[in-house]
Amino acid sequence: MTITPTKISLITGASRGLGRNTALAIARHGGDVVITYQSRAEDAQALVAEIEATGRKAVALQLDTGDVAAFPDFVARLRAALTATFDRDAFDHLINNAGHGDYASLVQTTEASFDRLVNVHLKGVLFLTQALLPMMVDGGRIVNLSSGLTRMTLPGYGAYSAMKGAVEVLTRYLAQELGGRGIAVNTVAPGAIETDFGGGAVRDNADINNHIASITALGRVGVPDDIGPMIASLLSEDNRWINAQRIEVSGGQGL
Which among 37, 103, 157, 160 is annotated as catalytic? Predict the structure, then answer.
C-alpha cells in the first residue's frame, strides 16, 4: 500500500499576524509547516510549539525576505530542516506572506521607503520563489499575498499597493510558466484585517475600524481567522483547478 506523505507548507513571515494564523489553520487541516521569521525568534518558536501540540510537525527558520543575497544560505538550511524534521527532501506549498507597510502619500514617498517595499514585496517574492522551485514537488501550490487596496484606493497606501499590484501580475505569469509542472499559483488579497500590521491601526483605532466596517457588506472588519483557514482550504485538493486567480477575502469591502 502506498502511503501519501503529509503535505508540507512553507510560510514566510509567520511569527505573527496572518502568517501565524495561516500556519495554525494548515496544521489543523492536517499539514506540516515550515515558518520563517525575520526577528521574532521567540514568537516563532512559540508558534512551533503550538503547532506541535496539534500533533503536526513544524520548524522555524530565520529569513529576511528582502535580502536576496541570503537566499542560498536559507535554501541550504531549509534542505537540512526538511531532512531532519520531516524526513523529506522537498515541500509542497509556498505561501509568500512576509511583508511590512511604509505609509506615505506618493508625493512624500522616499526612495529608501520605496526600495524597502520593492525588496520585500516584489523582488523578494520573485527570487525566493525562484530559489525554492527546485525543492517544490510537481503538483504543488503557491499562494502570494496581495491586498484589497489593489482594487480600491486609500490615502497613504499608493506605493505599497503598487507592489501588491505587481505581485498579482507576477502570479499570473508564474501560473503560466509553472503549469507544466502542475503547480497552481494564486493571489489571496485580504481586505482590512485586525492585526498588528501597520502599527495595528485597523485593530486599535476605533475611527478607522468603524469606517471600514461601515463600507463592508458584512458590516465588520476582518479578523485573522477570516484569512488563514481560507488559505488552508485553497491548498486542498478540493481546489486543485483554481489557478492564476486573484481571490479577494474582504467581506465585501468598498463595493
Answer: 160
